[in-house]
Write a structure and sequence with these properties.
Keywords: DNA-binding, Transcription, Transcription regulation. Pfam families: TetR_C_13_2, TetR_N. This is AcrR family transcriptional regulator. The chain folds into 2 domains: about 50 residues, Orthogonal Bundle (Arc Repressor Mutant, subunit A); about 140 residues, Tetracycline Repressor, domain 2 (Orthogonal Bundle), CATH 1.10.357. About 80% of the residues lie in helices and about 0% in strands. It has 11 helices and no strands. By secondary structure, the chain is mostly helical.
Length: about 200
């Protein structure tokens, strides 16, 4: 990390944390500046508007997630491995989801009520995840079936985050991941045979 990028990265990390824990509307530029150890005027050097900051937060979350999901992919890997990485990621995030809900889903929901342009930005990562799942399922399913499977699984994961947060119970996430793995056995029969072999 270069000296120039370090303060910017601190700002993005602070904003990401505050947007997830307080919400976008309840977080001011001054809050982000304070949390990142910068003066408000200095923060403006990196981000002119709160929308610029939101875009940077979504981009950083997307990059981190894509590094975790796409970078480890092996040529010719099966759909189960591809989908499994996302399920592993969600399982590892269970405590955070139970405390604050899904940071991306929460932003998309909040901004969808007030600002179409910002909503599109925040919802983009969820739609990329749906496309990621679709590509995995499309290896073994017809297009329409793959679309439904991707939608089903993403909706299940988002629902798990909402219920876990409502109950403050990460076990909800773990149960839903376990059920999703059982469901995968029904839609990816070759994966079931390998798992039981």
């Amino acid at each position: 990390m270069t000296e120039t990028s370090a303060p910017r990265d601190r700002v993005v990390a602070a904003a990401s944390r505050l947007f997830a824990t307080r919400g976008f509307a309840a977080t001011s530029i001054a809050d982000v500046a304070e949390a990142s150890g910068l003066l408000k005027g200095n923060l403006a050097y990196y981000f002119k508007t709160k929308q610029d900051l939101l875009e940077a937060v979504v981009e950083a979350r997307a990059k981190a997630l894509w590094d975790e999901l796409v970078a480890p992919a092996q040529p010719g890997e099966d759909a189960r491995a591809t989908v499994g990485r996302l399920l592993d990621h969600v399982r590892a995030s269970a405590d955070e989801l139970a405390q604050y809900g899904c940071p991306v889903g929460g932003l998309a929901t909040e901004l969808g009520k007030t600002d179409d342009a910002l909503h599109t930005n925040a919802a983009g990562l969820l739609l990329k995840l749906e496309a990621y799942l679709f590509e995995a399922f499309a290896q073994t399913m017809q297009k329409k079936d793959a679309e439904r499977a991707a939608e089903h699984l993403l909706a299940r994961l988002q629902g798990a985050a909402v219920v876990a947060q409502a109950r403050r119970d990460p076990a909800v996430v773990h149960r839903q991941i376990d059920d999703a793995l059982t469901w995968l056995d029904t839609v990816l029969p070759s994966a079931r045979r390998r798992r039981r072999a």
